[in-house]
């Protein structure tokens, strides 16, 4: 693995994002419980979650400008410090308005971290390893997400809930120090200063946002669908299983673990296959399998069968996200990575923002089965989209022996 990824900067980003995932996991697992203990209603808690998503949506596009102006490294360090400030202040804020502002800052800094990390990884990985690298990036964050909630109850038992948030703050600051001290400066082509120099020497200028979006539309649909699905399932699948399938509360708590295990075991495997066989083709196959697993919740009645379906859904649908990021890295020029990643994260955040209210409206109006069907329909629409725009992946053209209609960068 070290031979396949010789650039130590990539491993530094993996380490930083693992620490961030650990900080996220501790904080996220306690946020709702802490707010409930403070007397906030479930409506208040939902609105605060929307403030987080709104921060992602509104700050995604400006992150491209910040990265071009200050560099991906500087933006990453500032975003990590900003997140540490937000999570450290969170348990001590006195009012709903103050907490809403901090949750908005949390989302803004989070998207800064994601866009910066993704820009660095795509720029430093070659075209034959992009999905391999992005899948390890996803696994690194997921490991933190898994370990954080496991540690959180012990931290609270030994100290207090505010102390757990402060520990999350300290871990984020350690990640920022690691990046500041050890990460190399950006590669040429990742900053605006280089872009101006390139333009002066006759190099092709940066593409417009519309042109970039046309190239990465399948990746954007994939991340929108995953954000929509992820945010909706976390909230409403447990309610559906308890109300209509007779699953106990303790059993529903275990359900996300099967999804996470499926993701952790297969994301990197599918990343390797995607690099060799084509990212979009594999996304289509995984989307099809994942759609069938979602539909399975309508017809499955045994808990063990549901666990298998969740495991397969995690292995397939969660693997689509790093594959879509890798596809975007293949069809976008390195000088445009920061803007492409900003657009990409806008769609992810939009899915997170729209999924819960739409799913709740369908659930309330037509029941849990209709809610499950509409999630399956979303992924089915994505599969159809990948068929219509199969040419967006240059691998599809190369496999047919034709000239690619979409350029492949870093060849």
TrEMBL record:
UniProt keyword annotations, A-Z: Membrane, Transmembrane, Transmembrane helix
Keyword Transferase: no
Lyase found in the keyword field: no
InterPro entries: MFS (IPR011701), MFS_dom (IPR020846), MFS_trans_sf (IPR036259)
Record-annotated membrane-spanning stretches: 12-35, 47-67, 74-93, 99-123, 135-157, 163-181, 219-243, 255-274, 281-300, 306-331, 343-365, 371-390
Domain Major facilitator superfamily (MFS) profile intervals: 9-394
Superkingdom of origin organism: Bacteria
Gene Ontology cellular component terms for the protein in this record: plasma membrane
GO molecular function: transmembrane transporter activity
PROSITE patterns hit by this protein: MFS (PS50850)
Protein name as catalogued: Permease of the major facilitator superfamily
Organism expressing this protein natively: Sorangium cellulosum (strain So ce56)
Source taxonomy: Bacteria, Pseudomonadati, Myxococcota, Polyangia, Polyangiales
